[in-house]
């Protein structure tokens, strides 16, 4: 007879996998990707190291899945914020603001996902992560162009440029210090969102209005407050 896992067994296995990923995420948020090691992650997840290897046969697979999970969460947040906006320009502003807030809310984790040197190859996961988020930003730019709110442009290239600018400004080597302070974080989010909107062709007065609109949204205020 072929053994079939019961619903409870499947649920328990999924919960254990989630616990391991949550432990890896906590480790990366606290100490960067260098802190994502099998034994310490196992301790955090309250499982044996061998159990971690059953789910993730190598550290590269564990970190790659961590990158994918964090990116999926961010992408879902971007879509929720943009879909709730009243129009395509507001949706673009919401998407950019969400990227900025998520990047700043856990800067060490964001840097680890993006570019921190890792002793295993996770380049494919990193590239897939950036491609998906850039694609979402491009879709929002494209919607605003088709609605006549923005001039015609290469939306894929514009989205890539915006995403690179956001990341470099907020977590790159030249990013300002003390962005953990809620007021400075809010100012930084407003600055980069305004820059992004101007860059794709939103007139200054309209861009400023969209930035103020985003700052007043409950979700944005909650995220900024949580980062403090």
Written description of the protein model:
76% of the residues lie in helices and 0% in strands. It is mostly helical and 228 residues long. Helix 4 packs antiparallel against helix 5 (88-105). It is elongated, with a radius of gyration of 19 Å. It starts with 6 loop residues before the first helix and ends with a helix.
Topology, pairings included?
Layout (H helix, E strand, L loop, with lengths): L6 H25 L6 H8 L3 H7 L3 H25 L4 H18 L1 H8 L8 H24 L8 H17 L10 H19 L3 H13 L1 H10 L1
GO molecular function: DNA-binding transcription factor activity; transcription cis-regulatory region binding
Organism: Bradyrhizobium zhengyangense
Protein name: TetR family transcriptional regulator
% residues in beta strands: under 5%
Mean pLDDT: 91
- Count of extended strands: 0
**N-to-C span:** 56 Å
Helical stretch tally: 11
Keywords:
mainly alpha, 76% helix, 11 helices, elongated, single chain
Short synopsis of the structure:
This protein has helices at residues 7-31, 38-45, 49-55, 59-83, 88-105, 107-114, 123-146, 155-171, 182-200, 204-216, 218-227. It is an all-alpha fold and 228 residues long.
